[in-house]
Design goal:
The chain has 7 helices and 9 strands. It is an alpha/beta fold and 188 residues long. The radius of gyration is 16 Å and the shape is globular. The chain binds guanosine-5'-monophosphate.
Length: 188
């Protein structure tokens, strides 16, 4: 059986990665499995443990790092985020295409280990629009919003590390584009 693809999607906080993903995730022809990350950040309203993230403590996260249980991990605006290694290889060996939605430092760690990963960076139509989207979420204090915006500026400078850049002006169009990129790579 052909090994599944490792697909990395990055993009600044608030760009709408989750919304775009929801449009293509259920397309069975893409044979996608979403890798659920571990994080020490608190759940946002509506987020479920084991579905959106595995929510954990700093101690447990550090223990997972020590034991080598994470494919990559990074600190982002005061919290840890990481990809549990166990499922990724198993699913790929079953022919599934595994999708990681991770920030830029983690993406660099993964591409060093797996240079053939398919990397996609989602950009906003403008930085003003990005700020509007982050503020529209209304879930975080101003200090955190500022940190996320500063981080977004830094992340946008790294777009050229990615194989594909997709603009999320319209989430359905962005999703269609990503689907077609994945399909093309499945045929290679
Ligand atoms: P948020 O707090 O908005 O859910 O996520 C913050 C950032 O962390 C986003 O850019 C998201 O893609 C990234 N992220 C989520 N899970 C992981 C992970 O497992 N590893 C890394 N490196 N970044 C992650």
């Amino acid at each position: 059986m052909k090994k599944g693809l490792l697909i990395i999607i990055s993009g600044p906080s608030g760009v709408g990665k989750g919304t775009v993903r929801n449009y293509f995730m259920n397309d069975e022809s893409l044979k996608l499995e979403y890798s659920i990350s571990m994080t020490t950040r608190l759940p946002r309203q509506g987020e479920k443990d084991g579905v959106d993230y595995i929510f954990t403590t700093k101690e447990k996260f550090e223990e997972a790092v020590q034991k080598g249980e994470l494919l990559e991990w990074a600190e982002f605006v005061g919290n840890y985020y990481g990809t549990p290694i166990s499922q990724v290889e198993k699913l790929r060996n079953e022919g599934k295409n595994v999708l990681l939605e991770i920030e830029v430092q983690g993406a660099t760690q993964v591409t060093e280990k797996c240079p053939d990963a398919l990397t996609i960076f989602i950009i906003p139509p403008s930085m003003e629009e990005l700020e509007k989207r982050i503020r529209g979420r209304r879930s975080e204090p101003e200090e955190i919003v500022q940190q996320r915006l500063a981080k977004a500026d830094k992340e946008m400078k790294l777009v050229n590390n990615y194989k594909y850049i997709v603009c999320n002006d319209d989430p359905k169009l962005a999703a269609d584009l990503i689907s077609s990129i994945i399909k093309r790579h499945m045929e290679e």
